[in-house]
TrEMBL record:
This is MFS transporter. Signal peptide: none annotated. Residues 30-430 form the Major facilitator superfamily (MFS) profile domain. SUPFAM superfamilies: MFS general substrate transporter. The keyword Nuclease does not apply. It is a multi-pass membrane protein. Its main location: membrane. The chain crosses the membrane at residues 28-47, 67-88, 97-117, 123-143, 155-179, 185-206, 239-263, 283-306, 318-336, 342-363, 375-394, 406-425.
Amino acid sequence: MTQTTDAAPQTNPRATGPRRTRRMPHRAWFVAAVAFVTITGGAAFNSLPGLLIDPLHDRFGWSRGEIGFAVSIDMALYGLTAPFAAALMDRFGMRKVVVAALSMVAAGALLSVWMTASWQLMLYWGLLVGLGTGSMAMAFAATVTNRWFVERRGLVTGVLTAAGASGQLIFLPLCAWIVDNHGWRPASVTVALAALVVVPFVWLLLRDHPADVGLAPYGGEFVPKPAPRRGAAKRTVTVLLAAVKTGPFWLLAGTFAICGASTNGLMRTYFVPSAHDHGMPITAAASLLAVIGVFDVIGTIASGWLTDRFEARRLLAVYYALRGVSLLFLPMLMAPDVHPPMIFFIVFYGLDWVATVPPTLALCREQYGEDSAIVFGWVLASHQVGAAVVAFAGGVARDVFGSYDVVWYAAGALCAAAALMSLVIRRKPVPLAGLTR
């Protein structure tokens, strides 16, 4: 009887009776793995701009303000594309959107090898890469999680969020070594290849919906694949128009804009050239920035745990205040060598880097209920707009003052303002239903 049972085919996973003790993992985990690799490969470009500011300035004579403006276009488009990315995936499917996004990132990085004018830098780095990276990242991670998982959503969201930090950890030291030893063009080609290598995996292994392969989402019941949604983009704009009529939106958007200004716009873009101005080798500075990527994963997980237990407004105020103090001390820590106070700063700042995300998302959920995901998308857009402003202003400040010190001090003051803004966000939920009419 045992032999007969073992040999019988088991085509129905819900059939009663003995089952095999070893089963293949659910297809959702393969989809999540592809998404992780995709976000990691797409994040390769984010490692590049800070490494190439000085080489491009030396090679073409472009001002740092011009170069910073190209980076600011990329960051702004990244943020402004993100609220619509999920709508694009609902309309055309994840595979098509992600393949197109990776192709744009690769094209922008590869075409920059032959650029000779600053407008080309703005077109390749700003437009193409900005649209490409903005069509992935958090929108892609949220779509994969929502479609393929019912259980373990928190775990998968955290892992996919960490993919960006993983890309920074992998590509920053590698690209820095390439720039130091072979020049900026091979580094740009490396980024293009990293994006292109992922494309076949996305096309062959990624599926838009569990129903495409006859499966239920992990931990859930089978649901038919919904028809393409044509009104998602309109709703995205409608919710924005309603949210801008409320005070909490402007406080959340303002604090998150300062968050972007003091992280992506400032630290990711100008830490390496600022340290290099003080005599630190590019490779060493890039390695320090990569270490921040390790600790921001730890800090984000810890912040999520704290957000479940403490008031989100107070947490945000503490995070911004501590970040502001650390940035005020950073100019005094710059030196040719890596010393213990700088390592302490890297660890401390890394823990705080994206710790603001869980409480900000919690406040959006508390204030705006079922519209909170869309509102958070627009708050995230403000994050990137803040980053874009500082990416441009930092380059101009370096051209005018001869150092980045004034930018670090200004960012510290902005963080103090964000701490105060966090404390005055009201607790009463904001119904958007009446405002969307």
